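Format is sequence with structure; example below:
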Amino acid sequence: MLTASTPAVVQAAWHRTVVDTGFVDVTVVTGANSGVGYGVAERLVEKALMAGQGSQRVIVMACRNKRKAEDARERLLEDVARRRRKTSAARGPIPETLVQLLIVDLADTGSVFRACAEFKERFQRLDTIHLNAGILPTAGINLLTGLKNLVTRPSFVAQTGGDVFVQPRGTTTHEGLGTVFAANAFGHYILTMELRDVMTDGAKILWYTSTTASAVRHLDIEDLQCIKGDHPYESSKSVCEILASAPPSVAESESKKAYSFVSGCSVCYMYLDRIYPHGTAQLRPSMSQM
Protein backbone atom coordinates (compact mmCIF):
# COMPACT_ATOMS: atom_id res chain seq x y z
CA MET A 1 0.00 0.00 0.00
CA LEU A 2 1.16 3.56 -0.70
CA THR A 3 0.69 5.82 2.27
CA ALA A 4 0.57 9.57 2.25
CA SER A 5 4.20 9.62 3.37
CA THR A 6 5.56 6.89 1.09
CA PRO A 7 8.76 8.11 -0.61
CA ALA A 8 8.41 9.00 -4.26
CA VAL A 9 11.05 6.49 -5.30
CA VAL A 10 8.97 3.66 -3.84
CA GLN A 11 5.83 4.96 -5.51
CA ALA A 12 7.57 5.04 -8.89
CA ALA A 13 8.89 1.50 -8.52
CA TRP A 14 5.43 -0.03 -8.98
CA HIS A 15 3.76 1.07 -12.15
CA ARG A 16 1.70 -1.34 -14.23
CA THR A 17 1.94 -5.03 -13.46
CA VAL A 18 -1.09 -5.79 -11.28
CA VAL A 19 -3.79 -7.84 -12.99
CA ASP A 20 -7.53 -7.36 -12.37
CA THR A 21 -8.66 -9.30 -9.30
CA GLY A 22 -12.23 -8.08 -9.15
CA PHE A 23 -12.26 -4.30 -9.48
CA VAL A 24 -15.69 -2.66 -9.53
CA ASP A 25 -14.71 0.19 -11.84
CA VAL A 26 -11.92 0.63 -14.40
CA THR A 27 -11.41 4.00 -16.09
CA VAL A 28 -8.94 4.85 -18.86
CA VAL A 29 -7.68 8.40 -19.53
CA THR A 30 -5.61 8.92 -22.68
CA GLY A 31 -2.98 11.63 -22.72
CA ALA A 32 -2.94 11.52 -18.92
CA ASN A 33 0.68 12.55 -18.38
CA SER A 34 -0.04 16.27 -18.72
CA GLY A 35 -2.64 18.98 -19.21
CA VAL A 36 -6.33 18.17 -19.10
CA GLY A 37 -5.73 14.41 -19.05
CA TYR A 38 -3.50 14.66 -15.99
CA GLY A 39 -6.03 16.88 -14.22
CA VAL A 40 -8.88 14.48 -14.98
CA ALA A 41 -6.88 11.47 -13.74
CA GLU A 42 -5.94 13.32 -10.56
CA ARG A 43 -9.54 14.31 -9.92
CA LEU A 44 -10.74 10.73 -10.42
CA VAL A 45 -8.13 9.40 -8.01
CA GLU A 46 -9.19 11.89 -5.35
CA LYS A 47 -12.86 11.04 -5.82
CA ALA A 48 -12.16 7.31 -5.49
CA LEU A 49 -10.23 7.86 -2.27
CA MET A 50 -12.85 10.20 -0.83
CA ALA A 51 -15.51 7.56 -1.52
CA GLY A 52 -13.41 4.93 0.24
CA GLN A 53 -13.13 2.93 -2.97
CA GLY A 54 -9.41 3.24 -3.65
CA SER A 55 -8.89 -0.52 -3.58
CA GLN A 56 -11.91 -1.22 -5.77
CA ARG A 57 -11.29 1.23 -8.59
CA VAL A 58 -8.53 1.65 -11.15
CA ILE A 59 -7.50 4.75 -13.05
CA VAL A 60 -5.41 3.77 -16.08
CA MET A 61 -3.17 6.54 -17.38
CA ALA A 62 -2.75 5.79 -21.10
CA CYS A 63 0.34 7.61 -22.39
CA ARG A 64 2.71 7.43 -25.35
CA ASN A 65 6.04 7.86 -23.58
CA LYS A 66 6.84 5.39 -20.80
CA ARG A 67 9.25 7.65 -18.93
CA LYS A 68 6.87 10.59 -18.98
CA ALA A 69 4.04 8.30 -17.91
CA GLU A 70 5.99 6.99 -14.92
CA ASP A 71 7.01 10.52 -13.94
CA ALA A 72 3.40 11.68 -14.22
CA ARG A 73 2.14 8.80 -12.07
CA GLU A 74 4.74 9.55 -9.42
CA ARG A 75 3.89 13.25 -9.49
CA LEU A 76 0.15 12.55 -9.31
CA LEU A 77 0.54 10.28 -6.27
CA GLU A 78 2.74 12.85 -4.57
CA ASP A 79 0.24 15.64 -5.26
CA VAL A 80 -2.69 13.60 -3.96
CA ALA A 81 -0.73 12.43 -0.89
CA ARG A 82 0.31 16.00 -0.07
CA ARG A 83 -3.28 17.24 -0.15
CA ARG A 84 -4.46 14.26 1.88
CA ARG A 85 -1.96 15.08 4.62
CA LYS A 86 -3.65 18.46 4.97
CA THR A 87 -7.10 16.90 5.35
CA SER A 88 -7.44 14.96 8.58
CA ALA A 89 -10.67 13.30 7.38
CA ALA A 90 -8.98 11.89 4.30
CA ARG A 91 -5.91 10.18 5.73
CA GLY A 92 -5.06 6.59 4.95
CA PRO A 93 -3.13 4.44 2.52
CA ILE A 94 -3.26 4.86 -1.25
CA PRO A 95 -3.71 1.39 -2.79
CA GLU A 96 -0.99 0.43 -5.23
CA THR A 97 -3.56 -0.76 -7.77
CA LEU A 98 -5.44 2.54 -7.93
CA VAL A 99 -3.24 4.25 -10.55
CA GLN A 100 -1.84 2.12 -13.36
CA LEU A 101 -0.19 2.80 -16.72
CA LEU A 102 -0.87 1.71 -20.28
CA ILE A 103 1.69 2.70 -22.90
CA VAL A 104 0.15 3.45 -26.30
CA ASP A 105 1.02 5.62 -29.30
CA LEU A 106 -2.34 6.56 -30.77
CA ALA A 107 -0.75 7.60 -34.06
CA ASP A 108 0.54 4.05 -34.56
CA THR A 109 -2.19 1.47 -35.19
CA GLY A 110 0.12 -1.39 -34.23
CA SER A 111 0.76 0.23 -30.86
CA VAL A 112 -2.97 0.73 -30.32
CA PHE A 113 -3.80 -2.91 -31.08
CA ARG A 114 -1.02 -4.09 -28.76
CA ALA A 115 -2.21 -1.80 -25.97
CA CYS A 116 -5.75 -3.10 -26.34
CA ALA A 117 -4.56 -6.69 -26.14
CA GLU A 118 -2.53 -5.86 -23.03
CA PHE A 119 -5.49 -4.10 -21.43
CA LYS A 120 -7.72 -7.15 -21.93
CA GLU A 121 -5.05 -9.37 -20.42
CA ARG A 122 -4.87 -7.19 -17.32
CA PHE A 123 -8.52 -6.19 -16.87
CA GLN A 124 -11.88 -7.87 -17.21
CA ARG A 125 -13.93 -4.70 -17.61
CA LEU A 126 -13.95 -1.11 -18.85
CA ASP A 127 -16.46 1.29 -17.33
CA THR A 128 -15.33 4.68 -18.64
CA ILE A 129 -12.82 5.87 -21.20
CA HIS A 130 -11.74 9.50 -21.54
CA LEU A 131 -10.50 10.06 -25.10
CA ASN A 132 -8.47 13.15 -24.34
CA ALA A 133 -5.07 12.74 -26.02
CA GLY A 134 -4.36 14.98 -28.97
CA ILE A 135 -1.66 16.85 -30.85
CA LEU A 136 -1.53 20.25 -32.56
CA PRO A 137 1.66 20.49 -34.62
CA THR A 138 2.59 24.03 -35.62
CA ALA A 139 4.90 25.45 -38.26
CA GLY A 140 4.69 29.03 -37.03
CA ILE A 141 2.38 31.79 -35.83
CA ASN A 142 0.44 34.24 -37.99
CA LEU A 143 0.18 37.28 -35.72
CA LEU A 144 -1.41 39.45 -38.42
CA THR A 145 -4.31 37.02 -38.81
CA GLY A 146 -4.69 36.79 -35.04
CA LEU A 147 -4.83 40.57 -34.59
CA LYS A 148 -7.24 40.96 -37.49
CA ASN A 149 -9.58 38.35 -36.03
CA LEU A 150 -9.33 39.94 -32.58
CA VAL A 151 -10.54 43.26 -33.98
CA THR A 152 -13.09 42.04 -36.50
CA ARG A 153 -14.28 38.75 -34.96
CA PRO A 154 -13.75 38.81 -31.19
CA SER A 155 -16.32 36.06 -30.60
CA PHE A 156 -14.44 33.86 -33.06
CA VAL A 157 -11.21 34.48 -31.14
CA ALA A 158 -12.92 33.64 -27.84
CA GLN A 159 -14.22 30.40 -29.30
CA THR A 160 -11.24 29.16 -31.31
CA GLY A 161 -8.19 31.06 -30.09
CA GLY A 162 -8.02 33.26 -33.16
CA ASP A 163 -6.61 30.84 -35.72
CA VAL A 164 -3.08 32.15 -35.19
CA PHE A 165 -1.19 28.87 -35.52
CA VAL A 166 0.13 27.84 -38.92
CA GLN A 167 -0.24 24.08 -39.18
CA PRO A 168 1.97 21.99 -41.47
CA ARG A 169 0.36 20.37 -44.51
CA GLY A 170 0.70 16.81 -45.69
CA THR A 171 2.33 15.24 -42.62
CA THR A 172 1.76 11.49 -42.45
CA THR A 173 2.69 8.59 -40.19
CA HIS A 174 4.91 5.69 -41.25
CA GLU A 175 1.65 3.93 -42.18
CA GLY A 176 0.60 6.72 -44.53
CA LEU A 177 -2.15 8.10 -42.30
CA GLY A 178 -2.56 11.80 -41.63
CA THR A 179 -0.53 12.34 -38.45
CA VAL A 180 -3.03 14.55 -36.63
CA PHE A 181 -5.99 12.50 -37.82
CA ALA A 182 -4.37 9.30 -36.55
CA ALA A 183 -3.34 10.69 -33.16
CA ASN A 184 -6.51 12.63 -32.40
CA ALA A 185 -9.28 10.57 -33.97
CA PHE A 186 -8.41 7.25 -35.62
CA GLY A 187 -6.32 5.86 -32.76
CA HIS A 188 -9.15 6.58 -30.35
CA TYR A 189 -11.64 4.96 -32.71
CA ILE A 190 -9.59 1.75 -32.79
CA LEU A 191 -9.27 1.88 -29.02
CA THR A 192 -13.03 1.99 -28.49
CA MET A 193 -13.73 -0.68 -31.09
CA GLU A 194 -11.12 -3.09 -29.76
CA LEU A 195 -12.18 -2.64 -26.13
CA ARG A 196 -15.92 -2.83 -26.73
CA ASP A 197 -16.10 -6.50 -25.68
CA VAL A 198 -14.91 -5.63 -22.16
CA MET A 199 -17.08 -2.52 -21.81
CA THR A 200 -19.69 -2.90 -19.10
CA ASP A 201 -23.38 -2.22 -19.62
CA GLY A 202 -23.77 1.56 -19.45
CA ALA A 203 -20.09 2.22 -20.18
CA LYS A 204 -19.25 5.88 -20.83
CA ILE A 205 -17.11 7.03 -23.77
CA LEU A 206 -16.03 10.67 -23.45
CA TRP A 207 -14.61 12.36 -26.54
CA TYR A 208 -12.64 15.48 -25.60
CA THR A 209 -12.95 17.66 -28.65
CA SER A 210 -12.57 21.41 -29.06
CA THR A 211 -14.62 24.49 -29.76
CA THR A 212 -12.59 24.73 -32.97
CA ALA A 213 -14.57 21.74 -34.24
CA SER A 214 -17.45 24.14 -34.81
CA ALA A 215 -15.52 25.46 -37.81
CA VAL A 216 -16.85 22.68 -40.02
CA ARG A 217 -15.46 24.41 -43.09
CA HIS A 218 -12.18 22.63 -42.28
CA LEU A 219 -13.81 19.21 -42.58
CA ASP A 220 -13.55 17.87 -46.12
CA ILE A 221 -15.39 14.61 -46.74
CA GLU A 222 -13.04 13.95 -49.66
CA ASP A 223 -10.03 14.45 -47.38
CA LEU A 224 -11.11 13.25 -43.92
CA GLN A 225 -7.50 12.89 -42.81
CA CYS A 226 -6.87 16.50 -43.86
CA ILE A 227 -3.59 15.60 -45.53
CA LYS A 228 -4.16 18.24 -48.18
CA GLY A 229 -5.79 20.81 -45.90
CA ASP A 230 -4.18 23.46 -43.71
CA HIS A 231 -6.23 22.87 -40.52
CA PRO A 232 -5.73 19.18 -39.63
CA TYR A 233 -6.35 19.80 -35.93
CA GLU A 234 -9.78 21.37 -36.43
CA SER A 235 -10.65 18.70 -38.97
CA SER A 236 -9.65 15.88 -36.60
CA LYS A 237 -11.81 17.30 -33.81
CA SER A 238 -14.79 17.46 -36.16
CA VAL A 239 -14.18 13.81 -37.02
CA CYS A 240 -14.15 13.01 -33.29
CA GLU A 241 -17.58 14.58 -32.91
CA ILE A 242 -18.88 12.48 -35.81
CA LEU A 243 -17.45 9.31 -34.26
CA ALA A 244 -18.97 10.22 -30.90
CA SER A 245 -22.42 10.19 -32.46
CA ALA A 246 -22.13 6.46 -33.15
CA PRO A 247 -20.73 4.52 -30.17
CA PRO A 248 -19.39 1.02 -30.87
CA SER A 249 -21.82 -1.87 -31.00
CA VAL A 250 -21.34 -5.49 -30.03
CA ALA A 251 -23.59 -7.69 -32.14
CA GLU A 252 -23.38 -10.68 -29.85
CA SER A 253 -24.66 -8.71 -26.86
CA GLU A 254 -27.57 -6.58 -28.01
CA SER A 255 -28.74 -5.84 -24.48
CA LYS A 256 -25.62 -3.87 -23.55
CA LYS A 257 -25.56 -0.09 -24.01
CA ALA A 258 -22.73 2.40 -24.24
CA TYR A 259 -23.14 6.13 -23.80
CA SER A 260 -20.98 8.49 -25.81
CA PHE A 261 -20.35 12.14 -24.91
CA VAL A 262 -18.67 15.11 -26.52
CA SER A 263 -16.86 17.47 -24.19
CA GLY A 264 -14.71 20.45 -25.06
CA CYS A 265 -11.87 21.45 -22.73
CA SER A 266 -13.91 24.38 -21.45
CA VAL A 267 -16.56 22.12 -19.95
CA CYS A 268 -14.74 18.90 -19.11
CA TYR A 269 -14.01 19.95 -15.52
CA MET A 270 -17.38 21.62 -15.08
CA TYR A 271 -19.32 18.42 -15.61
CA LEU A 272 -16.92 15.81 -14.26
CA ASP A 273 -18.82 15.53 -10.98
CA ARG A 274 -22.06 15.01 -12.89
CA ILE A 275 -20.59 12.17 -14.89
CA TYR A 276 -19.63 10.22 -11.77
CA PRO A 277 -21.38 8.18 -10.63
CA HIS A 278 -24.82 8.89 -12.09
CA GLY A 279 -25.42 11.97 -14.18
CA THR A 280 -24.52 12.81 -17.74
CA ALA A 281 -27.47 14.93 -18.75
CA GLN A 282 -25.53 18.17 -19.14
CA LEU A 283 -23.28 16.85 -21.90
CA ARG A 284 -24.34 15.86 -25.39
CA PRO A 285 -24.94 12.11 -25.18
CA SER A 286 -25.35 9.49 -27.85
CA MET A 287 -26.53 6.00 -26.97
CA SER A 288 -26.34 2.83 -28.99
CA GLN A 289 -26.92 -0.85 -28.47
CA MET A 290 -23.70 -2.71 -27.76
